[in-house]
Design goal:
alpha+beta; 1 helix
Amino acid sequence: MRRGFGLVQALIVIVLISGIMMIAMKYATLSVKQTSDVYVREGAELFMSSAIEATLLAISGYQRDATNGCLEQVNVLSKDARYKADVNITGYFLLAGSADIGYCDRNISIQTEDSHGMVMLEIVVETNATHPKNEGKHVRLLRRTLQRP
């Protein structure tokens, strides 16, 4: 009688190796998914920073007067339409007695000159889940921030 692997032992080895490979593939798939989720979220956070800067630029260039009032909302869309940002200007911090205080409905009267001209922003950034680079992922970020234009 010769010694060696029999058919049963060969099948057991094949089943064990294939089980180990299935587990490795499962963890590799999870790793790829997590990496792509982080990539889309980081892109949305970077776009949010750009939307804040674009809003501050829009506020700086906006002519406040009795007919125009104050800027209340800015919508920013990325060049490739992967992300969109809706920025609501929830408050203008204006010095009591300032000429601009009568133009804004959303003003907050302050007494110190250090905070004059600051704005409270509420930014909502959403991904376009139908865009091919977002791969069906929907990310929604919300941030409230106090900025000086």
